[in-house]
Amino acid sequence: MRPCLVLTRPRPTATDFAQKARAAGWHGEILVAPLMEITLTPPAPKLLDEAAVLIFTSQHGIESFTRATSARHWPVWTVGPRTAAGAHRAGFTDIAQASGGNAASLLADLNAAAIAGPVLHLHGAHLACDLTSHLRARGLQAHGCVVYDQRPVALCAQARARLQQGGDLVLSTFSPRSSRLLRTQILDLNLSRARLHMIAISTAAATELQVLPLIHSRIADTPDAAGMLAALGCLQAALEPSEKPS
User: Fold this and answer.
1) What is the DSSP string of 168-191?
2) Looking at residue 105, what is its pLDDT?
3) Predicted TM-score (pTM) of this structure
């Protein structure tokens, strides 16, 4: 039985990463088992009218925005290359990307750029970093708006059965919250036949799964899809030394 990569991100994000993993040389099984589903709440036009600069930290925020207006005149700041590419596809032309690909570097870059507000951060209901509060603390007029939610869902019966079947299971986690949801749902499964491994996008995300009997664990060198793919490649080399990821 070949190793199985377990993807718990919402669709279609999980499917997109699965395709990238295949292209990068992952030849094992892939189990797409979402633990969250996305619901969009487009922002009110009046709130957008009052903003001079927009901040996007996820694809979902961009998708929700596009349902509110066809205007694209705002300068946009994004947290990473994937979000920047999403903003470009949505029709924005004035796009800045955080130099370090995370919230801390985004804050530093915004401060260095000495931008003028009001700034509007279009984000999800569950925040890993409250950018709005940090920007206000630096004297900038900033507002936040919840434009989507990631609601927990139970693992489907097929996913539960596959996990209990065992073998080498590579758990992938892209956030502390998804780690908590995964930990909660798999602790009541019979994993006696499973050998658990993990790739995590950050130390915070990895910490939530440290209670599991992990054989291998790797944290991405960069907090993005590219970093996770590199971590997966290193793990594949340990699990299947004869394989040579692209």
Assistant:
1) EEEEEESSHHHHHHHHHHHTTS--
2) 87
3) 0.80
